Amino acid sequence: MPIVQMDQSIETTDSQQNWWKRTGRSIWCSIKPGREAGRGAYWAAVATVVWAVIVGGLNVKSGFGLSADFLFVLVIATLGIPLVALVIALLLTIFRHLPRLLSGFFVGAFLAISLLWQSSHGYWTSALLLVLECMLGAAVATLLFGGLRHASRAKRVITISLVALGLAGNVELFSFFHSDGIDEELIRLDKNPGPLPPKLTAANPSEPGSYPVKTLTYGNGDDLRRPEYGKAVAIHTGTVDASKFFKDFKGWRAYIRRLYWGFGMDKLPINGRVWYPEGPGPFPLVLIVHGNHGMAQFSDPGYAYLGNLMASRGFIFASIDENFLNSGLYYDPPKQQPVRGWMLLEHLKTWREWNKTAGNPFYRKIDVENVALMGHSRGGEAVATAVLFNKLAYYPDDATIQFHYGFPIKAIVAIAPVDGQYKPAGQWRWIQDVNYFTIHGSNDGDVSSFQGSRQWDHLRFSGHGDYFKSELYIYRANHGQFNTSWGRTDHGAPGNWFLNLRSLLPGDEQRQVAKVYLSAFLEATLHNRREYVPLFQDYRTVRDWVPRTLYVNRYLDNSNKIVSDFSEDADVTTTTVPGGVLQQKNLTLWHEGKIPYRNGDRDYNGVFLGWNRTHAKNSPVPPAASYSIDLPPALASDWKLSGQSILKMSIAVTDETAPSADKKLKKKNLEQEDGDDKPEPTDFTIVLETQDGATVKLPLSQFNLLLPPLKVKLTKLDYLDKAMYKEESEPIFQSIAVPLMAFAKRDARFNPAKLKTVRLLFDRTPSRVIIVSAIGFSESAPAN
């Protein structure tokens, strides 16, 4: 009896399996695509490749013209696709049920489109595009030529559905690529939590000055690609030999670059376009240099808006041509970063000669003791490199190259700069005794971290002279709009189709910020108009001159003395000045370490402080946390602290959540003091104690704002943001200037000369993690 039951069970199983096979085969036979579908998919792939070739040809921009660009991409497509198709066809012979040639062509087209688009997300885009177009092509071919009238109902439904799906997918893809981006909730502050500082009483530096403006270009006069540097030049210059910097630059790459430009690295031209004031002078000299861009998409004309403004205000302003060092012909020239800075010094050498040459348009019109350098992107790193080389006798990476410069460079500006692409002798670039200003945007899709802030920290003051350094971070500003030749997109097509542009500041507003700050910086450092310095101490002093957005700024001058920058040792309780003590109460996060960027770090330390007074219902509110700096006993008297002294702190707010002090806390039953997740400024109490027992408290918000992290969406897709930019925001430092006089006015017993302790009492904002990069004292007049 059991044997009979087993046989029946086996028969039942076989019968079920056969039924499923028959059912599956009948369904597939009723809907399987015919040869027409294969032909349709084939021609759809061909059409997609043709479209990709057109896009690639229009955006290669080698400089040799459209014909050469299209020829290049056509050769890649014509040779590459059949070759890959043949290889894939051979590999697929083992898969007899696959259309081998079509599969090989599909893979070849996928690789060709990915290569032609040259983007980090080109692979998945190519795959999505080909699958979508091949599906649509197969469905359309089946619809038109597959005898669909006599096909099964299931096949008709599926074919028509695939046609509709393919068309809808194409419409959606087109809309996605051509849209400005996604709507994101912008960070806005309903009100300032503290009193605003007085507005600057000086004239708006972005307004044109009184000088008529004249223009000219200079160059060697036979430039193959730039007519303005050809016969049209007003002043003929020579060339410089940079071949020692490019000893490894040989072969076909060097040949094709020489073929395009008409010169090699041994004969780099001294080219520039100049805006200058009409008058006897002498006038301060300002050079600006662009960064990396397509070498055939000339970058130097993009600063004309600055040239006209600066010349009208009494500066000779020259935009330097270094396009021949830029990317092009499908690669970057090797080791060009230090040459960018070296070329600036060669230009200064030329200008100094002109000032001494009778008959030259600039004869005795240049104030050679007042010189500033400005740079954008890689140019922002180049100006710091130029300052370093200016004081060196030898090139750090090859001491057979000697330097003989020593120009009086008083000020440098770094606009959205890179930092660390060139490290002299493998070291960070430390410079000294020069005024420094750097400006950056939160929506920079090219240089996505505020790298100029690292150079800011690598600038020292000897204590001699009158120098300052300042940085400004602009919410919703991007990389390219500081240069009118670059524009809104920080990548070339088709990569820029993925950028989120909807939240950007308009270009004229972003350039308005540049005009205000760059003009004021030159006025303060080269014209000695010190009334503009408060602008760099507190951005709110010029709130009527700049667009309505959010700003973060940091400022230090050579009068500043550091109590602690958290880099002296591994002991979190010691200050940089010997004898000081650091201590805390009730913090839930406390450590020192490298300050992060979106990707990587700034190579300098800070202290990370976190507190969280969130608590469970029916639990007591945790006590307020604090962080104290006990000064060395004699510091206040040794440094002669007085009512004119200012406590300086550099603080950034992070998007990290501090652990809760209440260990019983459960996520389902929270009771937060603010009761609102809306981004708000951070506030706490500053407590100063003296040796004779006087204790005075004032809120931080009385002196400045600590904005929330400025989170942004740089692309239209969240996963692309995480893959390309890692984080939505990064710590940006705000200077807090606290006049000791404010505490003396609050309590007459407070004597700055007896200051003993600085305490940060975190009692006004329920939960935050902040980074303090430095605490010290300055003697400068406060902005407010």
Provide an overview of this structure:
This protein is an alpha+beta fold. About 30% of the residues lie in helices and about 20% in strands. It contains 16 helices and 29 strands. The strands form 7 sheets. The chain has a 10-stranded mixed β-sheet, sandwiched between helices. Strands 17, 19, 20, 23, 27 and 29 form a 6-stranded antiparallel β-sheet that branches. Strands 18-22-28-25-26 form a 5-stranded antiparallel β-sheet, covered by helices on one side. Helix 3 packs antiparallel against helix 4. It is globular and about 100 Å long. The N and C termini lie far apart (about 100 Å). The model is unreliable at about 1-5 and about 665-675 (pLDDT under 50).
Strands, count = 29
Average per-residue pLDDT, rounded, comes to 88
Strand order of the largest sheet: 2-1-5-7-6-8-11-13-15-16
How far apart the termini lie comes to: 102 Å
Level of helix content?
Answer: 25-40%
Secondary-structure map:
Elements: H1 2-31, H2 35-60, H3 66-91, H4 100-117, H5 122-145, H6 153-178, E1 213-219, E2 235-236, E3 239-240, H7 251-261, E4 268-269, E5 272-277, E6 283-289, H8 304-312, E7 316-320, H9 337-355, E8 366-376, H10 378-390, E9 394-395, E10 398-402, E11 409-415, E12 431-432, E13 435-441, H11 452-457, E14 459-460, E15 468-474, H12 507-525, H13 533-537, E16 551-557, E17 561-564, E18 581-585, E19 589-596, E20 601-612, E21 615-616, E22 625-630, H14 635-638, E23 646-653, E24 670-671, E25 685-690, E26 695-699, H15 718-725, E27 734-739, H16 740-746, E28 755-762, E29 767-778
Parallel strand pairs: 1-2, 6-7, 6-8, 8-11, 11-13, 12-14, 13-15
Antiparallel strand pairs: 1-5, 3-4, 5-7, 9-10, 15-16, 17-29, 18-22, 19-20, 20-29, 21-24, 22-28, 23-27, 23-29, 25-26, 25-28
Helix pairs in contact: 2-3, 2-4, 2-5, 3-4, 4-5, 5-6, 8-12, 9-10
